[in-house]
Structures are given as C-alpha cells and as structure tokens.
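Quick illustration for those who missed Monday's session on complexes.
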Amino acid sequence: MSKWPYNTAAWARLRTAHLSIEPLCRGCEAEGRLGTANTVDHVVPISQGGPAFPGHDGLASYCASCHSAKTARGAEAGAIRSTKPRRGCNPDGTPLDPAHPWHEKSLRAKVHVPSSHLNPQLVSGEE
Ligand SMILES: [Zn+2]
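Prediction with zinc ion bound:
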C-alpha cells in the first residue's frame, strides 16, 4: 500500500515525532476548527524535489479528511483529479461544487416556499 519513504521505520519515527510536536490539523485550524492530526505531509512534495525526511519545519500535520482534500487539490494531483467536483456544503447549506444542481436558479425557485404559505403552527412548533 504505502510506498517509499512512508514504508520505512525512519518515516514512522519522524511521523510520530512530528505529531507530538504538531498534534493539531493545519487544515482544520485554517477553518477555525480543532482537528486531531494523524497524517504528516511534506511541505514540499517529494515529487517536486523536496527531501523525503525533512526537518520538522518541512513537515505539516493534517487530519485524514483535510489531507485527502489537500492531496486531491494540490500539486501532486493530476489534471484529471483536480477537475473532480468538490464535495460538501458551506455552513449555510450551499454546496461547494459550483456545478451542483442546487445552483440552478430554476430548481431553487421550485423548492422555495414563500413564508406566507407556511403553516404557522408547524413553523413555531406551538399547539
Ligand atoms: Zn483537518
């Protein structure tokens, strides 16, 4: 599964040491959340000439979901993968993917219910 250098004992030691220094996910931190990191990433990818075993300033901690999102969008992703639709929503429920059908105005108009049509008893929850 894993390939060099991730299958080496040296990487396992470096990864464990880095997670103890930087236990929180940088991606979560950037979005104002606290996420426990379990993945150590190279700041400069090995594929771009970065060192396989850099110092701790050459490493970054991420949680699994931020790391896979970063890898899918980042420099190591191929052109095909970078066109993959983004998954998930903003906090207000707006899909992140600009091609998502929700963004079709006509569709949104169909599901929009004017507030005057809402049953006030159902909306307020009062008997
Ligand atoms: Zn994260």
